[in-house]
Amino acid sequence: MRLEFETIEIEAHLDANSTYRFWTFNGKVPGPFARVRVGDTVEVYLKNHEDSWYAHNIDLHAVTGPGGGAALAQPGPGEDYSFKFKALNAGLYVYHCAVSPVAQHISNGMYGLILVEPEEGLPPVDREYYVMQGELYTEERFGTSGPLNESYDKLVDERPEFFIFNGHTGALTEHYPLKANVGETVRIFFGVGGPNYISSFHVIGEIFERVYLQGSLETPPLRDVQTVTVPAGGSAMVEFKCDVPGRFVLVDHALSRAEKGLAGYLFVEGDEVPEVFSSLNG
């Protein structure tokens, strides 16, 4: 199994009216979803784009080895490195850049998830989605238009201006909302890049029928859970059946964060199911 990453610093929209210089894996926030299986020997190749301003590397929490692979090198612009590891443990793991100051690299967008499936794989579901939560620390206040600049002082003081799903305030609302049909089962691979804040992940109007806490896939799941606590640098896998149609909102139930950009939508289409949910007002 071969995983290829390129670290790219790119100016992109943070919301409809502002831009930010993100630091990314493969030009995306979060980085690409990686999927391997227990027992695989995985080769990791990382190149730092020649136009980068800073050194970057990768720490995969699925790796058994110093720094999760990050201890081997810190390639500067135009440089690269590679390593291999054996996937020993099933689970859903975070990866991130680990060049100092690590929190700065993570906050700017350098995080993602790697799934190590059990030998027998995961049970099939109808829909799978990849969602990560992060924070951004800008000199300018939330809602400011134009190019925004990072604030190292706010970062070390843990005072973010933005909370985001998948790198943009409208990523899962305006641009790429989740979709499903009545009767389908949805699986969400959820992680928190952070670098600092815990998430209380919740889908308003749904109940997680199965929750694999801390990304542990070998532990029996919790059943019928309303809200899942996921630490910075942690993950959870949740599954639920879509019983009725409508718009369901993804949030961190620390709900003030919705006012700083943190929300997503799941649109479920299909016929009404009045025996499950209906109005009494006619």
UniProtKB/TrEMBL annotation:
InterPro entries xrefs: Cu-oxidase-like_N (IPR011707), Cu-oxidase_C (IPR011706), Cu-oxidase_fam (IPR045087), Cupredoxin (IPR008972), NO2-reductase_Cu (IPR001287)
Q: Which cofactor does it need?
A: Cu(+); Cu(2+)
UniProt keyword list: Copper, Metal-binding, Oxidoreductase, Repeat
Q: Which residues form the Plastocyanin-like domain?
A: 13-120, 166-269
A Pfam family it matches? Cu-oxidase_3
Q: How is the cofactor bound?
A: Binds 1 Cu(+) ion.
According to its UniProt record, the EC number is: 1.7.2.1
Reaction equations catalysed: nitric oxide + Fe(III)-[cytochrome c] + H2O = Fe(II)-[cytochrome c] + nitrite + 2 H(+)
User: Could you give the subunit structure recorded for this chain?
Assistant: Homotrimer.
Q: Which family does it belong to?
A: Belongs to the multicopper oxidase family.
Full protein name: Copper-containing nitrite reductase
